[in-house]
Design a protein that fits this description.
CATH class of chain B: Alpha Beta
Structural class of chain A: alpha/beta
Oligomer: heterodimer
Low-confidence stretches of chain B: none
Distance between the termini of chain A: 27 Å
Helix content of chain B: 25-40%
Strand order of the largest sheet of chain B: 4-3-2-1-5
CATH topology of chain A: Hypothetical Protein Ychn, Chain: A
Largest sheet of chain B: 5 strands, parallel
CATH architecture of chain A: 3-Layer(aba) Sandwich
CATH superfamily of chain B: DsrEFH-like
Distance between the termini of chain B: 21 Å
Shape of chain B: globular
Number of strands of chain B: 5
Mean pLDDT of chain B: 97
Order of helices and strands of chain A: EHEHEHHEHE
Number of strands of chain A: 5
Number of domains of chain B: 1
Amino acid sequence: MKFAIAVFSPAHAPSSRRALRFAEAAIQSGHQVARLFFYQDGVHSASSNIVTPQDEVDIAAQWRSFVEQHQLDAVVCIAAGLRRGVLNQDEATRHGRPAANLSAPWDLSGLGQLHEAAQLADRLICFGGD
Amino acid sequence: MSTLHVISHSPFADDRLDSCLRLLANDDGLLLCGDAVNALRAGSPVEARVRNADLQQRLFVLAEDVRARAIHSELAQALDYIAFVELTLKYDKVNSWL
């Protein structure tokens, strides 16, 4: 089966960890993760500048390696990203900002990608809140 | 069309759980995770409301979240993540109360 997973909370929120564990379990069970969509505060998960305290689990780093390992389609909402200062090099240049903090494997794109994922997947599962 | 409802917010902080219980259809399921598992804390008023909702066989909790909070309840079936994934496929849709 195909899963689309939307993450609405930053990497330090319990629900982001839950989303990651769910995605790992889906793949472990032989299912496909058709797309990951990071929306609202979820876009912070993709920032290259996150520094997690040494005594905490680095969920942002785990997201990155999970996406890379399975070569997943990981989309960060562009409007939510710009609003929160999560920019790739193109957007940093376009808006005259001094630095970019979003790079591969993440892809900045629009909310249409969430809609499309909901259509092409068998289940859309959203994770947010506590 | 059956729906699996997923709630992660504490029932002591807002009324998501009560709203959900009110509109839960007969073939819908409910999964509690995160702070929402506090709804199963024995002797609390919210636990009584969950008990009265009569959700046998369709109330679930994430095992790691009840274990982390030392909550023991016979009202819900505890799931690991593999079982969580399979549960989402037993319902037509999954609605997370964000």
